[in-house]
Amino acid sequence: MTERFTEILRQASQPAWSQSVGHRFVTELLAGTVSDAVMVRYLVQDHRFIDSFLTLLGGALASADSFEARIRFGRFIGMVSGEENTYFLRSFEALGVSEQDRTAPPDSQATAGFKAIMREAAATRSYAAALSVLVVAEWLYLDWAQQASQPLPASFIHAEWITLHDNPDFRDFVGFLRSELDRVGPSEAETSRDFFLRAVALEKAFFDSAYDEA
How much is the pLDDT for 168? Predict the structure, then answer.
């Protein structure tokens, strides 16, 4: 049986993929022991992705080659704009993060890199390029979130960040993304590999950056 293209890319990204999935931040988040200072630093930076992430999703929607795919992206855009964004706002309130606290810190190097690669992939107008970054952003998060044991951490800030990335709808969407990249990626293999590997490296750097001042 031929190995899936997305699995070939994941193997090519090692050890950064496994280092991300098994990162200290993930371990502490799943245990509910990540400190408020680290969580604030992480969430403030992660929230800044949303604009670029929506641009990337829009690029995928525009370059998709089927009506069904465009519907899937449209639904997911609604979830990110609604449920996920609301999670950030509720978390900021619970953690006492003011508007100034959210806007004053500069983008970390990893945040700037992620925003840039999302917009770069969207600007290519290549469905494979957009999918390559999206598959990393969503599949890698599903991979670590599926390690969670029950019961989940008591704090909604920890628990909901886990369940946002491991629930039936999200698992189904990751499956859809992988199937689409398996289908269209091989015809643009070099482009897909380049975006995929850079995105995985940025994921690890982003987790690292949560501890830069810890």
Answer: 96
